[in-house]
Amino acid sequence: MDDPLKLLEELELILLSPSGRNDKTVLTKLISDEFTEVGASGATFGKREVLAALPIQAGVTFRADDLQVKLLSPTVGLVTYVVTKRSGAQSTTSRRCSIWQLTQEQWQLVYHQGTAT
């Protein structure tokens, strides 16, 4: 895909989709080895923890609203949005931001943060 803004939007949505979250091959490809996440709880996670946790989450869905993508440089992109997470009858909303980096023709997620609203 030639448009990096559209590509980053697509990649972010893949990571929110059940099929993307359950596919360790996809997760390994899209998440950088240097990845750091700061969750809505304030806890921090690395790639290893995320690869262990995401594929076993069942019955969780995400809806992204107000998704915006900005290129901070030709090789760094920022994705921001509001996500509604549903698990059974429970629903939570948080603001999210992701930083993506282009390395060797592959965009990878290097940082992600969620802030409860």
Account of the protein in words:
The mean pLDDT is 93. The N and C termini lie far apart (34 Å). The protein has 117 residues and is an alpha+beta fold. The protein has a six-stranded mixed β-sheet with strand order 2-1-6-5-4-3. It has helices at 4-16, 18-21, 24-30, 47-53, and strands at 31-38, 44-46, 60-73, 76-87, 90-103, 106-116. The chain has four helices and six strands, in the order H-H-H-E-E-H-E-E-E-E.
Give the overall shape.
globular
Fraction of helical residues: 25-40%
Q: Report the oligomer.
A: single chain
Low-confidence stretches: none
- CA radius of gyration is 14 Å
Structural class: alpha+beta
Mean pLDDT, to the nearest integer, reads 93
Strands of the largest sheet, in order across it?
2-1-6-5-4-3
Element-by-element helix/strand order: HHHEEHEEEE
Sheet bearing the most strands, described?
6 strands, mixed
Number of strands: 6
The CA-CA distance between the termini, in Å, is: 34 Å
Taken as a percent bin, the fraction of beta residues is over 45%
**Helix segment tally:** 4
